[in-house]
Amino acid sequence: MAENTAISWAKHTFNPWMGCTKVSPACDGCYAEALMDLRYGKVQWGPHGERVRTSVQNWNKVRRWQRQAAAAGEKWFIFCASLADIFDNQVPPEWRKDLFDLARECPNLIFLFLSKRPQNMVKMSEAAGGLPSNCALGTTCEDQKRWDINIPALSVAKYMLRPTFAFVSGEPLLGPMWVRRAPITPALRALFPAMKSDEFYDPLHPRQFEAIRIDWIITGGETDQGGHKARPWHPRWVRDIRDNCADAEVPFHHKQNGEWLPSSDVPEPWRFEGATVLPDGRVREWHPAYPGERLVHPEMRPMSRVGKKRSGRLIDGIEHNSFPKVTI
């Protein structure tokens, strides 16, 4: 699997620094905050906390991975960072430059920069001397609202910075996402005059706009973190993304089901805590004007809280482990 990560889509995890500020519902159950702030007290989370740079020894591990990957003749995916956001406003700019310089030293490593702040990618990368060619840019989209906000910004960043590839993490997946459509922003119209007559574009198959295509989508259910209890997901959310990726020939990777699993996949589901979820994300909530919907809605799905280990990674009996092609 990996030397120091259980994440199915990376070989290793590297944290050049620690600390962040919550910016979206996906942050509600922040793993990094629960571990490094609330449990170990190594860094204070939030806008008033200082970011903490990790040790020289930790940075040197990356150089060792480079030597190992080069000896093996392989390209290794390095998730950077699980305890921070590379494009966080409160990170000293010189730290980001140091990280980019390290990436340039390590051509056999593909650095995966997953950020909830894709709007910062272009300006911060340019200020750090430009994005290294062996860095991939990704953003988290947990629902349609975040997809519509973050995907146009990621598309602009892909066009302007030319990363190895662009990817999306739908983890934790908290609502449905129509991944074949995103709004065309003024920034995109400025780059692509042919878009001026359109309101939306398809980021998985943007016709002549291949330079802004999303190259990989990851999904995952939420897990419990500290006092935060994972929210259940609806099977249709993952299936729709999976099927749209297949149709557009975009690699799809399902990392985990999290704490919840469809009750139809659980032997003796009555032994576990349960919830019913509608496609729009409502959990045991129905409009007072339509009380019968609770009983007759065809897409209502019962879910069981079985725990992360028991829930596994299968969707309809299949494990999805696709990765994007790396050509550098």
Automatic annotation (TrEMBL):
Q: InterPro entries given for it?
A: DUF5131
**Family matches, as Pfam families:** DUF5131
Q: What is this protein called?
A: Gp37Gp68 family protein
